[in-house]
Amino acid sequence: MRVAVHFNPEKNNAPECAGKVCEILLGDGAEVSVSPVYKERFSKYSGIEFAELTDSVFDSDFVIAIGGDGTMLRCAKKLIGCNAKMIGVNTGRLGFMASLEADCLEKLLDLKSGNFEITERMMLHGIVYDEDKKYEFDALNDINISGMYSKICDFGVYSGSYQLGSYRADGIIFSTPTGSTAYALSAGGPVIEPDLECIEMNLVCPHSLFSRAMLFSPERTLTVACKSSSEESPLYMSFDGESPIKISSKNKIEISKSRYKIPFVDFYSKNAFHESLSKKLMQSIK
After folding, report:
1. Contact of 247 with 135, CB cutoff 8 Å
2. What homologous superfamily is domain 123-260 in, according to CATH?
């Protein structure tokens, strides 16, 4: 069993937690790799290998990301096209994507026995057409289009040639079920079980009395037309919160289900997501 360990050194206790993870896995006979950036810190663990995650992910059975949701999100996208399975260990605040909390690391011993389940999580695929070029991206959480400085924008959303709606808002969010507990939740969207498949659309601060979230079939391809973009008030498109790209009314934008999925390890019951959701959301409002 080969395991790649990745952690966010800026998160509280993440380096210490990574050390404990390595101890547990090495003691169980696993082959463990960590980034060579941390060679000095982890050289005390006998048998550990040092390799960049972008390389080790291809021959690993599991990838363990230690930190918050952002760490897990960035790490999970490196699994695209690989056979490795994702395990998140939360040392951040909420950790909706986490398989384990930092005080439950002994559950990692279940990896060898196969005492766990796999949840396949869908991704979104976005294409930006710019004259004779196109830019393609995959997102595990969401695709967001918005202006700067809270400037209101006009959006048209189409399915084929049929216009589904015309909207005025600060922005528009397309999210996966995994992303339904992220930006989409703050925009008033519903919570969706992560193993369902659908495309969720939410408006950010809509200029309307009757705006609601919409759910689309995962087989539907949506096209977005940005009607109010200009050089004076440009729009920006972001995938999973990464650096945005500038778009204009000349760009055609398509959003659909990605052909890739990310397999997440689940150590607990079928109700683990709901238990985690209730516990963490209640904590966040205390």
Report:
1. no
2. Probable inorganic polyphosphate/atp-NAD kinase; domain 2 (2.60.200.30)
